[in-house]
Amino acid sequence: MLGFLKKPVVVTAEINVNLVALTVMGLISRLWGLSYPRAVVFDEVYYGQFISLYMKRIFFVDDSGPPFGHMLLALGGYLGGFDGNFLWNRIGAEYSMNVPVWSLRLLPALAGALCVPLAYQILVELQLSHCAALGAALLILFENSLITQSRFMLLESILIFFILLAVLSYLKFYNVQRHSSFSGCWWFWLLLTGAACSCAVGVKYMGLFTYMLLLAIAGLHFWHMIGDQNISNVSLMCHFLARGLALVIIPMAMYLSFFYVHLALLYRSGPHDQIMTSAFQASLEGGLARITQGQPLEVAYGSQITLRNVLGKPVQCWLHSHTNTYPIRYENGRGSSHQQQVTCYPFKDVNNWWIVKDPGMQQLVVSNPPRPVRHGHIVQLVHGITTRYLNTHDVAAPLSPHSQEVSCYIDYNISMPAQNLWRVEILNRESDTDVWKTILSEVRFVHVNTSAVLKARGLSGASLPEWGYRQLEVVGEKLSKGYHQSMVWNVEEHRYGKSQEQKEREVELHSPTQMDISKNLSFMAKFSELQWKILTLKTEDTEHKYSSSALDWITMDTNIAYWLHPTSGAQIHLLGNVVTWTSANVAVLGYTCLSLWYLIRRRRKIYDIPEGAWQLWVSAGALCLGGWAVNYLPFFLMEKTLFLYHYLPALAFQILLIPVVLQHLSEHLCRSLLLKSMFSALIVAWFSSVYFVYRTFSPVTYGEPSLSVTELKALRWKDSWNILIRKQ
């Protein structure tokens, strides 16, 4: 029974020494001296702010992309025990002792290091030789720009890692499928492809380019499967559903999960709240939630409310009035109604309070039981402090002569009757009998007499002159001019009015609101709003000293100075390996020209290379050249400030193309032994030059050793490079 113990248990394993060696070298090149410099390097000043906010659980919005990459950087801070207390206000600022620099930079460095073995495995899966795969990995290893970008709290190395992981996973899946569909290994690589794509998109929206490329390749492969008569209809349907699940459904679910974790972590109110809706702000701890917690949910006749404009750009503002009137005549000679001013005021103020009045009754308090206001009801809005009614009429607005003036009506005993009836229209209603709800309802006020809509016109940028205290203009806009968010309002603060006397009501308006009904947004509602803000929020693009155009990247006519030592000549630059970048451009040009030549010849029924070699050439090129194109060409259409690091994902694919072209030239164009020997010698010389350039620029890649003025001048290989040289 125990006979099996008579023989030793033997475990055998295949170890790819190339892969192990490349991984070790990648780790050394990216992790060596990772804490140096112990100062803020370039965009660390930007991402560091978000890390601090994660540590403090304070909500923020970053319009540069989804939150997954930020969360990974914050994970490094969490593992290092960072408390978030550091002022990220200046590039070059020395880190205090509470900032775990090594831990914060660790994940980007690991991602950058793992790109080296990933490059090797991708070419192996493309059926290229191990020699070609080794060459690709070494080119990634000795690429100065990729090293620099992976050694700091930046996202590009993480993005490239997930992109390459997605490509490798799909190639593994495709190769496994040839002999064992629906096996455990098959499912693993297919699911990992979708997960890696989702992570890439979750780091930066640039990951969407590679995701779309892989979906297109997967679609093409499935199209070929449809033509295979050996595959049954049931099997085809299973393949389709499996791909749909792994490449579409799961990535979407993961993408949602990134936001779920993000919102779960950031539950406290912060400086970015103001661009979100009142409902979103009220769901955060502190801030608006402290004011609105427990307010009545349903707006009733007699309710005291503040009305916030939903647009919230360029600043949030509330419907406001004060005792001052419009001037009798404006600067341009036009006359006004001389009625009480109504504006949109970007600060909380007692003059933002309004009372919802039933036109058929005189009381300004909530009855018992309260009578809720519903969609389509006619109301009057009474200004809480001055008790004058919100009014509009056929008088030109002060800054917008084609729109109607909005005022609070003063009876001057002239032939200008009050026109103060407004119809409440709930835009996000579920039925025509919906009740007007605090925070949740988005409403439009339509003037009964003129059909004009209450609109915060000043949100377009113009503000009233000194007589209007530079507040934002409110007008009556004709409905025929179309819908705009500046026409939409929501109740932010709300209480049930109890005081009929004006003096008592003024005291009531100054007091805080407290009731017993809370309002919570669902996750999907918060996700939808946050996603929309990320996609539509526009930060002012200013010209940056190191910004560049997409055309500058190919020839590397630009660089970025990341860090300069305060006293010595030590500095760090984002600069690529000139030999590698030039070779990559030649590879793209060579592949394109050679492919066109082959296509023309094949059209003439002339086959220069075997069919297997042609299929390898096409498949490898579609992936590498396609990856370069989809990650580079879209930047020509983007209206944003661009930097050299935006090119790095495209560069990674371009580098993978070099060994593809070199192996093809060696196997199919160098036909004699002499030519092969000469070609091999040229490749060795070329690789030596790649390593030479890597070593030459290492001081400005790693920031040490410090170089003299003469040595720095010697590194300015192009006049357009901005190598920093201190004045003597």
Provide a brief overview of the structure.
It is built from 21 helices and 14 strands. By secondary structure, it is α+β, with helices and mostly antiparallel strands.
Overview of this protein structure:
The strands form three sheets. The protein has a six-stranded antiparallel sheet with strand order 9-8-5-4-1-12, with no helix packed on it. Strands 2, 3, 6, 7, 10 and 11 form a six-stranded antiparallel sheet that branches. Strands 13-14 form a two-stranded antiparallel sheet. β6 (390-396) and β7 (404-408) form a beta hairpin. It is built from 21 helices and 14 strands. It has four domains: 35-99 and 267-289, no CATH class; 109-153 and 538-727, no CATH class; 156-262; 294-513, Trefoil (Acidic Fibroblast Growth Factor, subunit A), CATH 2.80.10.50. 44% of the residues lie in helices and 11% in strands. The protein is elongated. With 728 residues, it is α+β, with helices and mostly antiparallel strands. It has helices at 17-31, 44-55, 68-79, 101-125, 130-141, 144-150, 156-177, 184-203, 207-226, 233-265, 278-282, 288-292, 502-510, 523-536, 550-554, 578-603, 611-632, 648-669, 673-696, 698-702, 709-714; strands at 303-309, 318-325, 340-345, 353-357, 378-383, 390-396, 404-408, 422-426, 443-447, 452-456, 472-478, 489-496, 560-564, 571-574. α9 packs antiparallel against α17 (611-632) and α16 (578-603) crosses α18 (648-669). It comes from Bucorvus abyssinicus. Pfam families: MIR, PMT, PMT_4TMC. The chain crosses the membrane at residues 9-32, 68-88, 100-120, 154-174, 186-219, 240-267, 578-600, 612-630, 642-662, 674-694. Belongs to the glycosyltransferase 39 family. It is an enzyme of class 2 (transferase).
